[in-house]
Amino acid sequence: MDSTLPAVAEELLKEIKKAFEETSHGTDTFFFRLKFIFGPSAVPALDLVDQRSVTRVTSPSGRTAYQVLGSSGKLYTCYSSCHFCTCPAFGFTVLQKSESFLCKHILAVYLSQAMGACQELAVSEEQLTSILLAEEEDEG
Q: Where in the numbering of this chain does the SWIM-type domain appear (predicted)?
């Protein structure tokens, strides 16, 4: 996990990761704590994890990005290293209004990492660059 999250969120994700490493499942306690800490993003993020919608994209140089297939069918690129998502909700709710510290896509990335539920995709440097540039073109 990254230190971009509040300490209580970091600790919860560590506990979830430990539970999944030991038993391959979580508990209702984790669900309630997720809802308490992450609010309305928790349930949709868990749905994305259940649907295996999170893919870790890596290049030979070690650069990593995450792609999350949103509930709308659109693919969003997330960066856990800098705590950023290309979805409109992140721009509005997190950056403009400061109503939340993450969107459901970033939370799904953190949860899929903790639960070992990330899809893996190795790509060339050129392919990763194309993925990243495609996001800029969509926004422009």
A: 76-114
Amino acid residing at 117:
A
- Kind plus residue range of the DSSP H or E element containing 94: none
Q: How far is CA 40 from the centre of its chain?
A: 15
Whether 53 and 63 have beta carbons less than 8 Å apart is answered as no
User: Six-digit token pair at 109?
Assistant: 């990335």
Query: pTM of whole model > 0.85?
Result: no
Domain ranges of the chain: 7-131
Largest CA distance in the chain: 45
Express each pLDDT in 9-36 by its tens digit: 888 888 888 888 787 666 677 888 888 8
Using CA atoms, how far apart are residues 87 and 106, in angstroms rounded to an integer?
10
